[in-house]
Design a protein that fits this description.
This protein has 377 residues and is mainly α. The protein has 12 helices and 7 strands.
């Protein structure tokens, strides 16, 4: 066990290095080309550590002298999780190379040793950038850092069960997960089409920022990391649940209530007015619900098993969409933007209802058609 802890510590340090070095490099380059006359070299390093925490979905609390910029940063880039994922994946694989392929019971010791070292050292290093103005409480930061690194290591460890899905809830989890990923992919296409249609707005927002060459590169990376958030917001908009960009705002096919938007280029994809015809795109969500019902009917012949599948799929859909909605929404630095992203409580309910509508149509429509044909005959 001592050797496992020692190697876990070594690979935790290595993985942290793989994450922090590129982030620090980009921060230093962006700072050097920004032309600030009042900053010092510690500023970009602190910013790099803030981004390190944000990439792990650790919320930051700000108490700056400017009241308009005081608040919390909980609107975090979901795509940023890929950065620690690939770094921790590499560290865990190196750990296996050093210690050898573990037995099943030893895999969890490997994972715990690695994740504990990564989370503890990562938070201790981050303390350099934390203080009275920017805070990340340890009771939030440590569990989140540990969870991200442990899940990443678990996914590549081979500890996932290899047997076929047998129980209805297992099949429901798999089908609902695939359906949600498909819908997020569809929403990404909607975002791409909207960005193309509103390209002039995107250019104007970019000119307002004037980021420069390297600053523009950092801005581009940031936009890419926020793409999953934007895609999930687009799914919320298409479903009819809507999205919010600050206090009192609501954007949906029915309502368009917003005063101004932050100068973030990707927000140029936002619609300029409500359009109820956009709601027709929700037919894709209904179709996915019908596909889930088709899978259930083709898999189960027993009514009780089919019923258990649909109940499991409904609960899993609500929980999974709720998690996605919460991860992709939050406060953006200022108290003027307390809620940015999908309407987190409405999106799971409405999308699940549209799933159920599609499933109901698939189950009932053939019977109605057969009954009508029988009456005509």
């Amino acid at each position: 066990m001592t050797r496992i802890l020692r190697v876990g510590l070594q690979q935790g340090i290595r993985s942290l290095t793989l994450v922090l070095l590129p982030i620090s490099f980009f921060s230093l380059v962006a700072w050097a080309t920004a032309g600030s006359s009042s900053g010092n070299t510690a500023d970009p390093l602190r910013a790099a550590l803030w981004f390190f925490l944000a990439a792990h979905q650790v919320p930051l609390q700000l108490a700056l002298s400017d009241a308009t910029l005081s608040g919390s940063l909980t609107f975090l880039p979901v795509g940023g999780v890929l950065i620690p994922f690939f770094a921790t994946r590499s560290g865990y694989m190196r750990m296996i190379e050093t210690l050898g392929e573990p037995a099943h019971k030893d895999r969890f010791r490997y994972i715990f040793s690695f994740a504990f070292s990564y989370a503890t050292l990562g938070y201790l290093i981050s303390l350099i950038a934390l203080g009275s103005t920017v805070e990340a409480p340890y009771y939030f930061a440590l569990p989140i850092l540990f969870a991200i690194s442990a899940i990443s290591a678990f996914l590549v460890s081979g500890a996932l069960p290899m047997h076929k899905f047998q129980f209805p809830w297992q099949r429901a989890l798999r089908v609902v997960w695939i359906s949600c990923v498909t819908l997020i992919g569809f929403s990404s296409l909607v975002v791409a089409a909207s960005l193309t249609f509103h390209f002039d707005v995107v250019l104007n927002l970019t000119r307002v920022i004037e980021p420069g060459v390297f600053g523009g590169l950092v801005l581009l990376i940031g936009q890419l990391l926020y793409l999953p958030n934007v895609a999930i917001s687009a799914l919320s908009y298409v479903s009819g649940a809507g999205i919010t960009i600050g206090t009192g705002s609501l954007l949906s096919p029915f309502i368009h209530r917003i005063d101004e938007i932050p100068a973030i280029p990707i927000l140029g994809a936002l619609p300029v007015k409500g359009n109820i015809y956009v709601l027709t795109l929700s037919i894709v969500i209904v179709f996915m619900g019908a596909s889930v019902a088709r899978y259930a009917v083709s898999t189960y012949s027993d009514f009780s098993e089919t019923k258990r599948f649909f109940l499991s799929a409904t609960l899993i859909s609500v929980v999974l969409l709720l998690v996605l909605a919460r991860l992709s929404s939050g406060q953006l630095l200022s108290t003027n933007l307390p809620s940015v992203g999908p309407v987190w409580w409405a999106m799971p309910l409405i999308v699940t209802t549209e799933f159920a509508l599609g499933a109901g149509i698939f189950m009932v429509a053939p019977k109605l058609i057969a009954k009508m044909k029988k009456q005509d005959a």
